[in-house]
Amino acid sequence: MAYRDLYPSSSYTKENVIVRVEFNLYSTKDEKLVWSGESDTLYSKDFEKLGKGYAESLVKQLKKDKVIRKN
């Protein structure tokens, strides 16, 4: 999902595209939901950088919530 924010000022208008990502992690044993999260970020034309940043944030949160172990 994505949506736009407009920030008008006296000399120019800045437009930001916000991207919302949802991640659901299920157990392969019983197909039950183990963890779910949502994240908002500013859209970047550098999709690889955007994806890498999301993956890093996701892993950090999964470790914090003790879903995965720290190594």
Molecular structure report:
- The chain has one domain.
- The longest helix is centred in the C-terminal third of the chain and has 18 residues, at 47-64.
- It is of the alpha+beta class.
- The radius of gyration is 16 Å and the shape is elongated.
- The protein has one helix at 47-64, and strands at residues 2-8, 13-26, 33-42.
- It has one helix and three strands, in the order βββα.
- Helices cover 25% and strands 44% of the residues.
- β1 and β2 form a beta hairpin.
Could you tell me the strand content as a percent range?
35-45%
Number of helices: 1
Query: What is the spatial order of strands in the main beta sheet?
Result: 1-2-3
Unreliable parts: none
Q: How confident is the prediction overall: mean pLDDT?
A: 84
| Percentage of residues assigned to helices | 25-40%
Question: C-alpha Rg, in Å?
Answer: 16 Å
Shape descriptor reads elongated
Terminal CA distance? 33 Å
The total of beta strands comes to: 3
Count of discrete structural domains:
1
| Main pleated-sheet profile | 3 strands, antiparallel
| Order of H and E elements | EEEH
SS class: alpha+beta
